[in-house]
Amino acid sequence: MLRLLRLWRVAGQDLALLWYALWHPARPLWLIPAAVGLAAYALDPLNFAIPLFGAVDDLIVLPLLLHAVARLLPADIRYGFERQSLAR
């Protein structure tokens, strides 16, 4: 259970990073389709049809995919986000 909570904490930071990267002027071209794909995956109708699969999907797979997209971002975008979050 503790690992799951840690995964969700990291997913929250990754979501904030993804939001920052979407508005960054030097964002990669693949970022917008990846973000749309993640949103479509999160709202997948299969989540509603098969509740158990939807729960596992939303609790484990979606944060892992979000983290993978965040790790693929260029270093200058990640560094800018860290610098901005430390300034607050």
From the spread of the alpha carbons, the general shape counts as flat
- Span between N and C termini? 30 Å
Total domain units: 1
Please compute the radius of gyration using only Cα atoms: 14 Å
Brief rundown of the structure:
82% of the residues lie in helices and 0% in strands.
Describe this entry's structure for a reader.
With about 90 residues, this protein is mainly α. It has one domain. Helix content is about 80%, strand content about 0%. α1 packs across α4. The chain is flat and about 40 Å long. The protein starts with a helix and ends with a helix. The mean pLDDT is about 85.
Features:
single chain; 82% helix; 88 residues; mainly alpha
Walk me through the topology.
Elements: H1 2-23, H2 31-42, H3 46-49, H4 51-71, H5 75-87
